[in-house]
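Thread: Newbie trying to understand structure tokens

Hi all, I'm a second-year student working on a class project, and my supervisor (Dr. K.) asked me to get a predicted structure for one chain before our next meeting. I've only ever worked with sequences, so writing a 3D structure as a token string is new to me. If someone could post the tokens and maybe explain what I'm looking at, I'd be very grateful. Here's the chain:
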Amino acid sequence: MTLKLENVTKQFGSFTAVDHLSLEIPDHTIFGFLGANGAGKTTTFRMILNLIDQTSGTITWNDQKIDYSRTDEIGYLPEERGLYPKLKVKDQLIYLGKLRGMQKQQAEAELITWLDRLKVPHYLDKKVEELSKGNQQKIQFISAVIHKPKLLILDEPFSGLDPVNVELLKEAVVDLKESGTSIVFSSHRMEHVEELCQHLCMMQHGRPILDGNLREIKRSFGKKNLAIEADFDLGFVEKIPGVVKVKYLQDSILCQIENEAVSQTVLQEITGKGFIRKFQLDEPSLNDIFIEKAGESYE
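---
Reply by user tm_fold:
Sure, no problem. This is what the structure looks like when written as tokens:
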């Protein structure tokens, strides 16, 4: 059930929020949307969900338009939280499950399973307003997945969570993918996208500046990162041909180099000058690629 966006544009008056976006999001994968605030990610999600109409272009899922007859197959976690603060977690989520076509007992069983999974079983009879922001986020996440959707859209799912709970939620997202759910999510944290996604789209000012398979994107970028830690001055490294730029840290440097071969030249130049604690060649980060493609830092 592939999700396809073909030449999708959304205009609000004279402002173009999404500009001729064409994407094919494969089934049974985790697809990441990256981009600064205002890049068009949330607008794209709302068009996919048919919450707002696109100005032009087509959006299909399994070659069919997404409408209200298909919403029971979709889960959505919006960036803006939308739980009722005065309602108990149990009453609220059973109600939301029933709206998705679930029986009360089935919804309650799923809710208890998820509360246990996310390590908050004692919140069943708590009011939402009694929970911390992070735990409200967990409940909101459960509301998006309780009905076992085939397509799950997560808008900034990890915001407001401490590192331990980020890991809990990431594991849950991966397990959902393994069980057959197609997942599309946006994040401000590039490392989350790198860790979770096979495919991604980077957006800037409503346009895709990069999309495709993560591994292929990194490979085609060409440049590599080289970290060196030594007990002697490494200032001369930036003058070695093929070293694009150098970032100086306390006892080490992080270089961007044109290709793997340059690393061997660097190694030859530093060998014999003193003790080398670390010499590590890595793939470029998504942040490196974004800066190169967008001409600006992601943050």
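A couple of things are worth pointing out once you decode it. The first helix runs from residue 41 to 48. DSSP finds nine helices and 13 strands in the chain. Feel free to ask follow-ups in this thread.
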